[in-house]
Design brief:
By secondary structure, the chain is mainly alpha-helical. Helices cover 54% and strands 0% of the residues. The protein has one domain. It is elongated, with a radius of gyration of 22 Å.
Length: 147
Amino acid sequence: MLSPKAAIVSVFRNYATFSGRASRSEYWWFQLFQAVVFLVVLFAGLIPASLSNPAPGETPPTVGAAGIGIFLFGLLVFIPNISVFVRRLHDIDFSGWFYFLAIIPGFGAIVAVVFALLPSNPAGARFDAVENLGTDTPAWKPSQNLS
């Protein structure tokens, strides 16, 4: 099991890696990290706005700043979110293409949570990256005519 810091670092280090696997702890620590950041930014914008007395129809600047902060954070974690979920699917021995089930309204969110909660499956090792043997020789013989 990964520690929270190790899980978050792992997700950002592998932000565009769609091969390999992600453990449940890596996936859920990253989800918790995102929720905490979202709530902190949201409340940082809403608490000062609720303490001030803006004119009717006027939006306090802290609300706009919070909205921009949430948008930028969403852009920052968009690709890492997809990659960690695809790697989580690999860990339970499902193809990464099952990610697209998550975009089905209503049903997709339930499927995504169920997939994320399933325990690891050793058969998911088939999705691990192939080791580079360090040879420059291609698998086919260059002297052969390919046509």
